[in-house]
Amino acid sequence: MQRLRRLQQTIVQQRDQIARHNNYLLNEQRVAKAVFDRVAHSGCLDAPNIRYLQSPYALFNGDLLLAAYTPSGDTHLLLADFTGHGLPAAIGAMPLAEVFYSMTAKGYGLAEILREMNAKLKRILPVDMFCCAALLCVSAQRRCVEVWNGGMPDGYLQAALSGQRTALTSQHLPLGVLRAEVFDHATQVLPMLPGDQVFLLTDGVIDTCGPNQQLFGVERLERVLDANRHPLQLIAEVEQALQDFQGQARDDVSMVQITSQLPAFLGVPAIVYSDSGQCSPRDWSASFEFRAPSLQQFNPLPYVLQLLMEVHGLRAQGPVIHAVLAELYSNALEHGVLGLDSRLKRDTGGFAHYYQQRKERLATLKYGFVRFSLQVEPIGESGRLLIQVEDSGAGFDVARVMARPLDLDRLSGRGVSLVRQLCPAARWAPDGRSATVEFSWGGLA
Fold first, then answer.
1. pLDDT above 70 as % of the chain
2. Which of 105, 118, 92, 84 is nearest to 42 (CA)?
3. Contact, 137 vs 188, CB < 8 A?
4. 246's torsion region: left (phi>0), alpha (psi -120 to 50) or beta?
5. CA dihedral 94, 98, 104, 109 (to 10 degrees)
6. pLDDT for 1-11, tens place per residue?
7. Buried b vs exposed e over 178-187: b needs ≥16 C-beta within 10 Å?
8. Which three-class secondary structure state does DSSP give residue 371?
9. Rounded CA separation 147/398 (Å)
10. Cβ–Cβ < 8 Å for 133, 151
């Protein structure tokens, strides 16, 4: 009886010790999760055109969902799935979120963001950890979606008018596996009209296990997609199908749906500046010429935009300036230097052929340039910015293009119309090889 009493006393002491230790660990995880959520969910996931569902398998979610606006009004969206779940899987999400938000805000494209993400994860993750990811750039203005899928289940692009569904398959290895010199950041570009939707999910959905050890699988998911009649209810219908399947989740389950939607306005700068602007440069000019080797692997837009945003009076117009610069640079590179015909993009097949030609011609480019000429001049307390973008191409028939109405509904030939809409002061040289736009601040007309 004495031994039983000592055994009972020992068990009670160990139980209390385990309970205290468990509460201590749970409290640490709650604090860490609060910090993690503030970092990981500081974007635009609450936007009206984004719907999502995340059901964590543990207190921490190994799935990561991020969304943020670019300075030009496009939407970058990342759905990632780290190996494992819980705290170890969430550790890699912090640097990933930092790269995603900071580079998106500065105007970098998917290729630059992907290279930086992969290099950082390759450097910090142990060899048995990696990150499957799908990264999107949804541009309602350019009527397209740019996709990179590395190790994630198929996503789906659903056309609103035709009802056609296109699978967004994985064509790359996950992030954090390959060294920087062999990492493939090539993306797929597809037409996406306003109202079209992209649906992404993690493997926790299709790997949900039923009562007979059957997996929910892709076929059941596609039957739900085929039966869907109200796109706004798709995620709820998939969730209901998982419940009817009586499945047991073995991993984190995440789904996200994003609709292409034109931004209501481009008036909120993506980057918040803390300086007073008293040291802002007010009278200067600069010229940059980017030649073939740079055009092949360097995106000059964030570099040029960062320089312009040092001018305090221009910061409120940062998103519009970025949108105009992006269109002018795209036209100069693709139609001027590379000689691509935008009429190829009139249908889905033409879209794929256009961007395949773009990739091939850029890879073999030997000559050519795109030149930016910037001039900032003060006018009293106000000021004016002049930007000239010139290319080495053959030019185009300016009079014919200018005679067209400002039609933004077509898939091709929209660049000039968009620039004229955002910047009425835009003008083109008669030979079509250079364009000049003007922005003013401080009350100038």
1. 88
2. 105
3. no
4. left
5. -80
6. 999 999 999 99
7. beeeebebeb
8. strand
9. 33
10. yes
Q: At residue 24, does pLDDT exceed 70?
A: yes
How many residues appear in the chain?
A: 445
Determine how β-strand 131-139 pairs with β-strand 369-379: unpaired
* Phi/psi at 295 (5° precision): -65, -25
Q: Per DSSP, which regions of 292-381 are E strands?
A: 369-379
Two tokens, residue 86: 């819980």
Report in angstroms the alpha-carbon separations of 395 from 294, 390, 407. 21, 10, 21
Query: Edge-to-edge strands of the sheet including 155-158?
Result: 50-55, 253-259, 197-201, 155-158, 165-168
Contact between residue 47 and residue 71 where contact means Cβ atoms under 8 Å apart: no
- Tens of pLDDT along 351-407? 888 888 999 999 999 999 999 999 999 888 889 999 999 999 988 888 887 777 665
Q: Per residue in 104-149, pLDDT tens?
A: 988 899 999 999 999 999 998 888 889 999 999 999 888 899 999 9
- Are the C-beta atoms of 170 and 149 separated by less than 8 Å? yes
* Region 280-308 average pLDDT: 92
| Distance from the Cα of residue 412 to its chain's centroid | 22
Backbone angles phi, psi at 424, to 5 degrees: -60, -20
User: Strands, E, within 307-381: which ranges?
Assistant: 369-379
**How far is Cα 233 from Cα 237, in angstroms, rounded to an integer?**
6
Beta bridge partners of 82: 131
Sign of the C-alpha dihedral computed for residues 404, 407, 409 and 411 taken in this order: positive
**DSSP type of residue 215:** B
Q: Among 423, 436, 55, 15, which Cα is nearest to 235's?
A: 55
Residue 389 backbone phi and psi in degrees, to 5: -115, 120
